[in-house]
Every structure is written in C-alpha cells, then in structure tokens.
Amino acid sequence: MGYSVVAGAAGRLLFGYDSFGNVCGKRNSPVEGAPLSGQDMTLKKHVFFMNACNLEVKDRGRGPMALCVSSCPEKQLDTLEEVQLFANINGSFLCVYSLNSFNYTQSPSADRLCPRLPVPPSKPFPLFNRCIPQTPECYSLFASVLLNDADALHRILSGIMAGRDTILGLCAFVFALSLAMLFTFRFISTLLVHIIISLVILGLLFVCGVFWWLYYDYTNDLSTELDTEKENMKCMLAFAVITTVVTVVLLALIFTLRKRVKLTVELLRVTNKAISRCPFLLLQPLWTFAILVFFWVLWVAVLLSLGTAGTAQVMEGGQVEYKPLSGIRYLWWYHLIGLIWTSEFILTCQRMTVAGAMVTCYFNSAWPRGEFRCSYCGLWCLTNYPYHLNQDAYAAAAINGTDFCTSAKDAHTIISKNSSHLTSVNCFGNFIIFLGKVLVVCFSVFGGLMAFNYNRALQVWAIPLLLVAFFAYLAAHSFLSVFETVLDTLFLCFAVDLETNDGSSEKPYFMDPGFLSFVKRTDHFNNARSQGHKNSLPNEEGTELRPIVR
C-alpha cells in the first residue's frame, strides 16, 4: 500500500492533466526535458482537448493535445479573433502555452499551436474535470478517442471518480436506511415483519426487472460503440442473471418459512429484551460504521494510486506521457481481497465485543444472581485463525477465555448436542434479519441504477454500482449484526446452561424464564425433551458456570 501511494499520482486522476505533465489546479514540478512542464496551474482547473473532433487524430491512433484552462468555451468559436477575445475576457487560453494570446492572430505558427476551427462548444464535466464537446458528432468522436484508448483499469477508475458525488450521496442514504432498519428491528412487530417481507419481495422483483430492462435497452441501442457502453452491457447481463437467481432462491425461502412469522417475531422480542439490559450495544454499530468508512476511503485512495502508478517519459515536441509500472498495477486483485478481509475483520471485532457483553449479561446482573468468571483473551487470535470465525465461537471465547480454534470446536460440540431444538429456531430469526439487509441493498442498488445510468456513455458505472451494493450490505450488516450476534449468543448460553446446570437448588439455571418459555413452545424443543432432555425450569439462586465441554 505504501509503495503504491508513493509511486502513484492520484492527483492526475482526480484533477486531470495536460500533455506536458502538468496537473490541472495544482502547482507542478518540472519534468526534465519538457520545457512546458512545471507550471502553476492553480487557477486552471479544467482540461481542454485541442482538435477533439479531428478525425485525422483518431486515424493516427493518438489522442488530441490537452491543455489546462480556467474555463471551457461554452459557445462555438469560429475564428482566431474569437479565440483571442475569449482568452482576454475569461483568462482561458486555448492555444499552447508557448504562444502568447496577443499573437493568436499574428503568429504564423498559430494554426499549429491553436485548436482547429471552429472550436465546438463544451461544458465542464466531473470526469477528470474535462471539457466535454456538446455537438453530437464531436461528442461521439471525443468519447471514442479518449475512452476506447484507455485500458480497463483506467475506465473503471474514471467511472468511480465521475460518480464520486453520487457514491457519497448513496453512502449517506445507506447509513440513514441502515439506522432506520436498526430501529425497526428494535421495536419489531408482526405487522412490521410482514411489511419488511413485502418490501423485500417488491424490491427484488423491481431491481431484477430494471436490470433486464437496461440490458434490453443496451442491446437495442444502435449507437452503442464505446468500450464503456459495451462493458456496461455485459455487466448488466451478469447482474440481471445473478439477481434473478437470488430472487428465485429468496422467494422460495420466504414461501417455505411464511408460517413461522409469529414465532420469529416472538424470538426477536426475546432478543430485544436481552438488548434492553445492555442498551449501549446499539451504539456499537456507529463506531464500527465510522471505522469502516475511514478504511473504505483509504482503500479507494490506494486503488487510485495503483491505477496511476507510472514514470514520466518525454516524447516528441516536449510532450509528456506516463508509462505504467508493469507489476504494481496488476495488484488490484490483491487489493480487492484486502478490502473484503479487512472489512470482515472490523465487523468481527464488533461481533466479539457484542458477544462478550451479552455473555456477561446472561450469566451476571441481567439474569438470576450468580458468579461468573469471564475472560476476553483470545481476541488476539482473530488474525491467526480467521477460518474458525463464526458467531458461536465469539460467545465461546468470551465464556472460556480460550482461543478461537478451541472456542469454535467447543461451540460446535455443544450446539450439536442441542441442534434439534436450537438450530432450526435460530435460523428463523437470522433469516428475517438477513431480509432486512437485502432490503437496504435493494433500495441502494435502485438509487444507484437511476443515478449512474444518466451518464452511462462516459463511465463504466457497473463497478461503482457494485461497490455501492457491497458498501450497502456491509453497512446494513454492521447495524443488524447486533441482533444476529445477540440471538446466537443467547442460544449458545442457553445450551451451555443446560449442559452445566440441572435446575436444582445447588445448580440452578441462569436462563430467563421468558426465554425458556419461548424455547419450550417450539416443536423441536418439545420433541427433544420427550427424548430425555433434562428439566429446564429456572431457579432464583445462582451458580458458577463450568466450561462448555466437560
């Protein structure tokens, strides 16, 4: 990461640069052998391309010369006099820097150093701060020359930067929606569950339909010539197929579990009862979200550095080109793995914190009296044993103070003994919580589709849309995983309570009577009890908790 930041030049991508190695809107250092480099472009924040509509430039396989200007010509300029007048009025010089504006109409080299007439009208667009031609013919050629010649990584990065405002707006929307979903589950009811399920079904069908409609629109658009448009079309097909499969699977699961809604609501109410004894757990996702946002901003900055890593080379006429570094720019896949792994690590720290707090709550002040020795050592093992991480292992580590290998094994053993009446009940609540995450993603993807599709010809917006969807899921997961972790921890503590205690005055249960009553009402628990499970009536006295596996 450090080397990519040092070797890269994200400023070139963020602010745009001219053909002489100057970054627009910045003070620049000179490049050896390029006399027009090293200029102060603080007031010149836009990139203007000379001869953007010249077919000869396209045929030679070279892009037009780029200059840093203070403003784009929004009206067509037909003569050099008009170009000179535009420079004098706006302070925006459209000819090569070596030619003074007073000589635009007098110098014999003006035809070579100034843009070919007429200069088409253009407007600034937040894609590298470029001046985009407004005439249809010139616009099409301009996009073909500048975008089709760029490699895939630069087109992806250009899409991210062009949609940065949209991405930030969608992130704020995701945060608000995730927070609203958190409060929805905090005060859950049967009606709210039915509303969530209905919105998820409508959202999945609508998003799936929009993807197929966009793919149909791309395939029937005869003007689709740009590589960016073709890549968007391929991504639309992939997204449409994936969302269709996900929609079918989720609809099947919803139909299968539709009769468990009342049971799920009761389960979530039990979960909220436990959370009400540790109300500050609901603030934990805010800290996690802030850390995630900081990490994601850092990740995008490093990605930009990877895409711009290169060395300056002086070409004919004093122009500067940047030769990409052969190795570092292909580390994007490693960078992507780092995004997923680090994000999960941050979320894992939250789960460990919530699980530890809930274990303490279960066996101490929140429930009947008793002594409980709880240790949180084992957190250091997170980086050494990532493949053992699961919800139950967090609570097991908090109970026994063991590392995650041992905790995961102990949790699996205790849950297996009680799987007949724990696993099936637990999955109902987790599925509804998962639907809440899906709902956040559906709304976010729909908003992204409407926003990104507006300028689809100039950017590969499928990747930014995928990033928004990924961000939406992780944000929703960071908020709603509090309920998942509490729910899983309660069931593990319940299983440990059954294994450790027998309900006698010497070894009373720690479990809450309401939670025990709920478990008893499930068919699986009644069947398990009929096969010889011990009586689970709680006692008022406390006892010391024994290790999970005896």
TrEMBL record:
Q: How does it sit in the membrane?
A: Multi-pass membrane protein
**Where on the tree of life does the source sit, at the highest rank?**
Eukaryota
Q: Polar residues bias: where?
A: 527-538
Q: Subcellular location, in the record's words?
A: Cell membrane; Membrane
- Coiled-coil positions are none
InterPro entries per UniProt: Choline_transptr-like
**Keyword Membrane annotated:** yes
Entry keywords, A to Z = Membrane, Transmembrane, Transmembrane helix
Region (Disordered) location: 527-550
Give the residue spans that cross the bilayer: 167-185, 192-216, 236-257, 278-299, 331-349, 427-452, 458-476
Which Pfam families does this entry report, sorted A to Z? Answer: Choline_transpo
Q: What does this protein do?
A: Choline transporter.
Q: Which family does it belong to?
A: Belongs to the CTL (choline transporter-like) family.
Q: What is this protein called?
A: Choline transporter-like protein
Q: Origin organism of this chain?
A: Rattus norvegicus (Rat)
